[in-house]
Amino acid sequence: MMGTPLGLGVSGERRQEAIDFCAHWPPIVQAQRDGTLDLAALSQEDQGFLRHFDASVMLGWVRAMLDWPAIEPADFRCPTLWLIGSEDRYAIASLKEYEESLKGSRVQVQIVEGLDHNQVFDGIDKVFPTMLAFAKS
Predict the structure, then answer these.
(1) What CA–CA distance (Å, rounded) separates 121 from 14?
(2) 3-state class of 83 per DSSP?
């Protein structure tokens, strides 16, 4: 589990961000599919997003997160590694919230220093050794 908070898929301010994302991106994704998307008409932020992400995949993922049930440490039935970047404020907040209930659970927490949410996924040189050690244990 990487950079994902426990509890609801998205809550608080992130839930509203997810709702806004799901309202904003469908017409852009549809225009991409139709071949009618004018990139120059998009904001710089949206253009940057499209350079780095597949918007249709992200849209599906974010929509799914809105419907995810709450996940608690006791729900994990097998050993689970929870990788969290030390600069990922949402995952760190979740860690603090669930600290007591993590004790005795099957969830092993590993904080990767200096990484934010996205860097946990991109920083393979910092993350993979931890993942490999967990898999071998």
Answers:
(1) 19
(2) strand
Q: How many residues does the chain have?
A: 137
Backbone angles phi, psi at 7, to 5 degrees: 90, -145
Is the separation of the CB atoms in 125 and 96 below 8 Å? Answer: no
Phi, psi of 20 (to 5 degrees): -65, -40
Q: Which amino acid is at 84?
A: I
At residue 13 the predicted structure's pLDDT band, cuts being 50, 70 and 90, is confident
Of 23, 31, 8, residue with least CA distance to 90? 8
12-24 vs 26-34: helix axis angle to the nearest 10? 30
Residues 78, 130, 101: CA angle, nearest 5 degrees? 45
pLDDT, one tens digit per residue, over 40-62 is 999 999 999 999 999 999 999 99
